[in-house]
Amino acid sequence: MAEISVNGFCDPAFDKVKQAFIGNFKKGKERGAAVSIVVEGKTVVDIWAGYADFWKRRPWQKDTLVNIYSTTKGVTAICAHRLIEQGRLDPDKPVSAYWPGFEKNGKEAITVRMLLNHTAGMIAIKKRQPGKALYDWDAIVNALENQSPWWKPGKLGYHAITFGWLVGQVIRNITGMSMGQFLKKEITGPLDLDIHIGLDEAEHHRSANMVMVRIPTIHPDCLKLTRAIVLNPFGATSMALGNPFSIATGVNSRSWRSAEIPSANGQAAARALAKLYGILANGGKAGNIQVLSPGEIDRCSEETSGGDDAVLKLKTRFSLGFMLNQDNPSGNMGPGKKTFGHPGAGGSLAFADPDAHLGFGYVMNKMDTFILVDPRAKRLIKAAYDCL
Predict the structure, then answer these.
(1) Which of 111, 128, 129, 121 is nearest to 150 (CA)?
(2) For residue 361, which of 82, 220, 270, 305 is within the disulfide window of CB 3.0 to 4.6 Å?
(3) How would you label 64-93 residue by residue, b for 16+ Cβ within 10 Å and e otherwise?
(4) In this structure, how many other beta carbons lie within 10 angstroms of the beta carbon of residue 329?
(5) DSSP code of 185?
(6) What is the per-residue pLDDT across 61-114, written as a single tens digit (0 to 9) for each?
(7) Domain 61-205+218-377 - what CATH class?
(8) CA distance linking residue 238 with residue 225, whole number of Å
(9) Are 98 and 126 in contact (CB under 8 A)?
(10) DSSP reduced 3-state for 261
């Protein structure tokens, strides 16, 4: 195999991370990828390698963006926590306090907390949607407003796609801005972070094309979920993960990149994710910008739901909007007791560990089929903690 050309910066004290990163390529697990780590406010790793396209004609660049799927949920959650801290959003109020009309058809008891911790029972639109509906915010929100929950609110079930529309509409109604606009105004603009929900068309050329692994990994965590999808194509799991079906097929399109899907289509660089979570892991302040207070950051790591997940068919744990370390090894984002963040379909991951003052961001374009933390990311995480 040809030598792997790694670009960027790696503190010599964190060389194990660089070697683990190279190892992922040598194992044939990567097409293009980047990893960045911030410790106590200092970037100690910011490296990238490989290609941004299927044909290996576009080398991965310093400014390459990549679709981060559900890692976007963590970014959306940070926006919600900012509103909570500002006193503009109360997680224990009913959603209808911020979204008049939502209370119809058995949804009157659903609170904002339930939206954020995946217990609202609004895991999917019940009626099968055409592919183009994915890019029509008003049509999707109208459908959610007028349908009933899949089950009695309070039961845990991962809101794979609807999370972004539900939380995003609450944020729209409070601020008068779309999710992407609020993110840019309040967080990514002031901090100069390369994270986008709704990417300007002039920036599309920087986005890596996602590539599916030829032979998906069959992991034990996936078996029950796969069985649920195959046996019941209109059941909760199938619809939550694939309605509209363009969720699975549209990722490299201009429509996808331009749209705002705040649970699934964030376009980001690893260094931006690491910097954002690094700020939260180190008191929440960068310069004169207080992203979140230490008290609000503590709330980010407090479990508010957990147990058997009716959609993912395994046990999960959530705070308000963030995934926490899980009760099984495949779901751990390192050893931190207060770690919070979010993995994304295919392998991306970003998290904060306030105990270690560490922010982590990993992005890639070769997708595998692990549900929680991808083994590629786990190898990088282990190497990082070995270096502390």
Answers:
(1) 121
(2) 270
(3) bbbbbbbbbbbbbbbbbbbbbbeeebebee
(4) 10
(5) I
(6) 999 999 999 999 999 999 999 999 999 999 999 999 999 999 999 999 999 999
(7) alpha beta
(8) 9
(9) no
(10) coil
